[in-house]
Amino acid sequence: DDLLYGITMNFSWLYTMIKIGQFEKALSDIDMAYNYSQEKELKFLATTLRSIKYKILKSPGSLSAELQQRLLPVVSSLPKFRQLLLECDKDGPKYCSIVPLHSSMDVTYSPERLSLSSSHLHITEVLPTYNPSTIISALDNGSISTWDVESRQLLRQITTAQSVILGMKLTIDEKYLVVSTTNTTLLIYDNLNSCLLSEVEIKGSKHGAVGATSTVINGFTLSSTHALAWLEASKDVTVIDLLYG
After folding, report:
1. Could you tell me which of 167, 176, 178 has the C-alpha nearest to residue 219?
2. Which has more confidence, 116 or 208?
3. Known SUPFAM superfamilies for this protein (predicted)?
4. Which domains does the chain have, with CATH numbers?
5. Angle at which helices 40-51 and 81-95 pack, to 10 degrees?
6. How does residue 107 score in pLDDT terms, banded at 50, 70 and 90?
7. pTM for the complete prediction?
């Protein structure tokens, strides 16, 4: 009776055996218990597990739902399954639940703060990198800094001309850092060595819109070797070779 109770009424045991790759061993134990006790619940459980074998081996977390679907209709004639079904209700959601079992509001959380500038300067742009612990920030004095946010260390710093930075982008290989400024120039940097490679003025097209007076870079985009930039009121796009400027 203790063996029967331990096997048929213990959902966590069944789940653990399946999770650790011992499905056949679990079936063997159930068959052995049936041969000893001749309890019909054990035979039905073994047959049920064999019928859902491939589903639960692929997704062990579905064991609770699969058992409930098949055992609930027969529980009136196989009453010893009641405890197993209660175990499915109690422990099943621990392994397969679309609703959190505890509220995230119960967790004390305080966001970390990392000072990226002195008190009198403002951050105008923050650029993430492929390394999740590294970011690049631009300040309103035109300087650009690369930070390790985990160690809170300043890795590199670039001082640009006295102009406000409108945007920053990295090429996909992070070899070049391209910066647009308010004086209609693109600054192309060797990102790893923090050195200026070239400064390119973006000029408006003589075929621009009638009455256009804007001299602001409206946008730019990058490939691994070239930059494309355009002014707000221009119909033309300037193509820049990142290596040669």
Report:
1. 167
2. 116
3. WD40 repeat-like
4. 1-94 (no CATH), 123-241 (2.130.10.10)
5. 30
6. very low
7. 0.49
